[in-house]
């Protein structure tokens, strides 16, 4: 059996796509009014991302241990590679490291240094290597290479959610405090930082598209569009990018989900762009609104 890839629910891979590649997703947590919800498992109220007082947390070491036990068994001893959101944004990577110590020589852990579909694309890259027969170490190396080459940007309507959650750098807090601007954020050293700011959301989206074209540099790309309760705008943005990128080998439009949605607020649009990923099987079967 091939090496099994484990990731977290921030990866936003639709179940059909995760099943196709044998990727296992460990759910993240949301807490509201004393109730603990598991992302991708429980029925979570749609308005949770706009509800004051909601908190989020990563998977804990026990949950990771169970996930690794099951994945090791499914791999028939080939082992596991875990691909998780940036350690600077969540304790999930740390929990995975603790859990991995219980399985010496069987589990390797990757800090994707990103979040959202960038994590998902890194996990897919690892799973593609596993399906080609790569051993655990080579799958791990594939994930590291993929994580280093996936670009991730997001445009949000305001910075309040990110400020309150502490998921944006101190420098970005200061840059965004003076005006009611529409910021474009990107991942730098595993944290969200301000890339640009614009007076209108449409202008910010246009500039984010420019950034995607520049990053692609005429190369074939895997395109991922993410949204927070804005599916129509996400599809329009994807169509716009298809018309500007030279070759889109695979495309995926997904919602950001409740955990990430709580941090970026409603209306956010993000993109993940992979220039070193093989064409992704099954994207046509994935439900654009699915987890």
Can you walk through the features of this model?
It is a single chain. With 291 residues, this protein is α/β, with parallel strands linked by helices. It has helices spanning 15-21, 61-75, 92-100, 117-131, 136-149, 160-165, 170-175, 201-216, 231-242, 257-264; strands at 4-8, 24-26, 29-32, 35-38, 55-57, 80-84, 107-111, 150-155, 182-188, 191-198, 221-227, 248-255, 269-274. The protein has 2 domains: 4-148, Rossmann fold; 150-285, Hypothetical Protein Tm841, Chain: A,domain 3, CATH 3.30.1180. It has a 6-stranded mixed β-sheet with strand order 10-9-8-13-11-12, sandwiched between helices. Helix 2 crosses helix 3 (92-100) and helix 4 (117-131) packs antiparallel against helix 5 (136-149). The longest helix is centred in the C-terminal third of the chain and has 16 residues, at 201-216. The two termini are 26 Å apart.
Total number of helical segments? 10
Q: What count of domains describes the coordinates?
A: 2
Strand fraction equals 15-25%
Rg calc: 18 Å
Overall shape: it is: globular
CATH-derived architecture of the largest domain: 3-Layer(aba) Sandwich
CATH topology of the largest domain, by name, is Rossmann fold
Low-confidence stretches: 287-291
Overview features:
alpha/beta; 2 domains; Rossmann fold; six-stranded mixed sheet; four-stranded parallel sheet; Hypothetical Protein Tm841, Chain: A,domain 3
């Amino acid at each position: 059996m091939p090496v099994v890839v484990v990731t977290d629910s921030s990866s936003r891979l639709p179940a059909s796509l995760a099943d196709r590649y044998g990727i296992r997703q460990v759910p993240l947590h949301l807490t509201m009014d004393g109730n603990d919800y598991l992302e991708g498992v429980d029925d979570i109220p749609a308005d949770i991302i706009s509800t004051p007082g909601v908190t989020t947390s990563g998977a804990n070491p026990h949950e990771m241990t169970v996930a690794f036990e099951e994945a090791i068994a499914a791999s028939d001893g080939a082992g596991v590679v875990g691909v998780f959101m940036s350690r600077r944004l969540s304790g999930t990577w740390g929990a995975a490291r603790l859990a991995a110590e219980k399985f010496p020589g069987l589990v390797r852990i990757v800090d994707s240094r990103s979040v959202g579909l960038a994590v998902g694309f890194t996990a897919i890259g690892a799973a593609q290597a596993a399906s080609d027969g790569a051993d655990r170490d080579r799958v791990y190396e594939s994930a590291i290479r993929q994580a280093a080459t996936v670009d991730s940007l997001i445009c949000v309507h305001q910075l309040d959610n990110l400020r309150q959650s502490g998921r944006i750098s101190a420098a970005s807090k200061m840059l965004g405090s003076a005006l009611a601007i529409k910021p474009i954020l990107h991942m730098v050293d595993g944290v969200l930082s301000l890339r640009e700011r614009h007076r209108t959301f449409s202008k910010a989206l246009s500039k984010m598209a420019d950034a995607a074209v520049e990053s692609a540099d005429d190369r074939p790309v895997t395109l991922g569009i993410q949204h927070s309760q804005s599916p129509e705008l996400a599809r329009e943005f994807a169509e716009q990018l298809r018309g500007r990128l030279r070759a889109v080998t695979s495309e995926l439009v997904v919602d950001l989900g409740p955990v990430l949605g709580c941090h970026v607020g409603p209306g956010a649009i993000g993109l993940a762009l992979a220039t070193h990923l093989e064409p992704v099987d099954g994207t046509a079967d994935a439900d654009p609104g699915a987890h």
